[in-house]
Automatic annotation (TrEMBL):
<dbReference type="Pfam" id="PF20032">
    <property type="entry name" value="ADYC"/>
</dbReference>
<dbReference type="InterPro" id="IPR045426">
    <property type="entry name" value="ADYC"/>
</dbReference>
<feature type="domain" description="ADYC">
    <location>
        <begin position="134"/>
        <end position="329"/>
    </location>
</feature>
<protein>
    <recommendedName>
        <fullName>ADYC domain-containing protein</fullName>
    </recommendedName>
</protein>
Length: 546
């Protein structure tokens, strides 16, 4: 006959039984709730776009099988490896344990800080990676106030645990799973594809890295991490809760949110924004309230953010933008394949300002942004005249990078007496907007440097990093719309250890005529003068959101 467990062990069994009853009640509630839409409208507080889903860099698309869990045994007991589950953002491990001296086999339910030392193995680069929970703490929510991780708050979904995870790939080099942001991650159910699709598979979960608050003077400012964690904090978790009444609807809105947050216009896992780009967004109720006769406003008060995109689920159940706003077409330096000549966006020739919002149903998110990235386009006339500028106008459906350069036109005020004679040659890439806010410029500090627009009375152009136009005779600053000749900003340096692109922008001068050109590639007949900086790109400054 098995010995009766001691009182401490019995108390653990009683406490765990109560936890499990609450856990089961929560699961039943999550499954039986029904409804047709999302009610909450997350406020655009601490909202910023990012370029990564999970924010774990090398381990960005690691899906973790729940069956690989290995949980340590508590002192004085021997336990099985356990069974793991993730529901409602809660990671729970169930073990069968026997006291060292023998006795009744008891169930042990482990959650929160008790998961320290628990590990999983996941497929990675043709081999596997071991993921070990090193620390557990209460998650700091982007949308304040943050609730304490009491048993009641965790069970109600008002608070959640986050995990500092150590990754041990086959090369045996232990590194932090979350190299940027807070260093901690949320446990999120289901799996993700490399193209950014949320895959319903209850046998898997992922660790979504959370951002870190680098704010000062009571002004929160969250940087790093990935957008999955951000969307959960914004109110669009991929499970039923306060903002949706079924898991299916919740997953759809979470997918819409993540596509929006990385500006993945083509639904292919490719970001078309820069980390930290300010973002304001809303669901269908708020969007309808600000849209007289179903037409969305082109700008959003009081900050003047421009309409970026309207996001919805297409006929195939995929999260995609229905359209882009006119100002986004003008500023876009996208590399998404759907934005070139093939144009897979449904309303390719229609801007969002032209759509009737009432025709789009109730699965809708609308995003506004100041677009801190602008397309830097090089135009050419003849063989020696070049203009490289962000002062362009884009034709919807024709101007988004790729090979469809005919969609870009020089804005009024450039190109001398005959601007139409200049043809677009190349989209060099994005640069930071000349209207970057003082706060954002201060945060970036010496990481960025300005570019200035200079011209001569005869229409020759020079884009340089020198406010005195390199002291070249005849060149003076060219102001457009009061910008005092400031074209925008580029990175002054990049992280040479990151895997991101490093595209230097260079100044060139013609060997005989003496005219200048600014581009990433050498024009024929021009010689190199100097590097002006680096075009912003994903991964150049990891963790340094604007």
């Amino acid at each position: 006959m098995n010995a009766r467990p001691d009182s401490a062990y019995a108390r653990e069994e009683m406490d765990v039984s109560a936890i499990m009853k609450s856990w089961k009640r929560w699961l039943v509630g999550a499954v039986v709730l029904t409804g047709t839409g999302v009610g909450a409208e997350p406020p655009p507080t601490n909202s910023a776009q990012g370029t990564r889903l999970h924010g774990s860099e090398r381990f960005e698309f690691v899906n973790v099988p729940l069956t690989t869990v290995e949980a340590p045994s508590p002192v004085g007991s021997k336990c099985t490896s356990g069974l793991a589950s993730v529901a409602g953002g809660r990671l729970l491990v169930t073990q069968s344990c026997t006291p060292d001296g023998g006795g009744i086999v008891l169930k042990r339910f482990v959650e929160g800080p008790a998961l320290k030392g628990t590990s999983f193995r996941a497929p990675f680069e043709g081999r596997s990676v071991k993921l070990t929970v090193a620390e557990v703490r209460c998650h700091e929510d982007i949308t304040l106030p943050t609730s304490a991780c009491t048993a009641e708050n965790v069970q109600a979904g008002k608070a959640r645990w986050e995990y500092r995870v150590i990754a041990s790939p086959a090369d045996k080099q232990e590194i932090a799973l979350c190299p940027t942001g807070s260093g901690y991650a949320l446990a999120v159910p289901n799996a993700w594809s490399t193209s950014g699709d949320l895959l319903t598979n209850h046998d898997y979960f992922t660790f979504a890295c959370a951002p870190r608050d680098e704010g000062v003077s009571g002004k929160p400012f969250f940087v790093g991490g990935g957008v999955i964690a951000k969307c959960i904090d914004w109110g669009y978790a991929p499970w039923a809760g306060a903002t949706s009444t079924s898991d299916t609807i919740a997953r759809e809105y979470h997918q819409l949110c993540t596509r929006m947050a990385v500006a993945d216009y083509c639904g292919e896992g490719r970001s078309n924004t820069l980390d930290g780009t300010p973002l304001a967004f809303m669901g269908p109720e708020h969007a309808a309230a600000i849209s007289p006769l179903g037409k969305l406003p082109s700008t959003l008060a009081p900050d003047g953010y421009a309409l970026e995109a309207v996001w919805t689920m297409d006929a195939c159940g995929l999260a995609r933008p229905v359209c882009l706003g006119k100002k986004r077409w003008d500023s876009l330096a996208a590399e998404g394949t759907c934005l070139d000549a093939s144009l897979h966006i449904p309303e390719t020739k229609v801007t969002c300002e032209m759509l009737n919002l009432s025709n789009l149903g109730d699965r809708v998110l609308v995003s506004y942004s100041p677009f801190i990235d602008h397309a830097l386009v090089t135009f050419r006339r003849g063989t020696t005249e070049y203009i490289t500028t962000t002062a362009v106008e884009g034709n919807p459906g024709e101007s988004a990078g790729g090979t469809a350069l005919g969609g870009f036109e020089l804005a009024p005020g450039l190109g001398g007496q005959d601007p139409d004679s200049f043809e677009p040659l190349r989209v060099e890439g994005p640069i930071l907007s000349a209207t970057l806010s003082t706060d954002l410029k201060q945060r970036m500090g010496t990481f960025i440097k300005p570019l200035y627009r200079c011209v001569t009375s005869t229409g020759r152009n020079l884009l340089t990093d020198s406010k005195d136009c390199d002291l070249v005779p005849g060149y003076t600053l060219k102001s457009i719309a009061g910008d005092q000749g400031l074209e925008g900003f580029v990175y002054s340096s990049v992280d040479t250890t990151s895997s991101g692109q490093r595209r230097p922008l260079k100044l060139w001068r013609h060997s005989t005529t003496g005219v200048f050109a600014t581009s990433t590639e050498a024009p024929s007949g021009f010689t190199f003068v100097r590097d002006l900086g680096y075009l912003p790109a994903v991964g150049q400054l990891p963790g340094r959101d604007l």
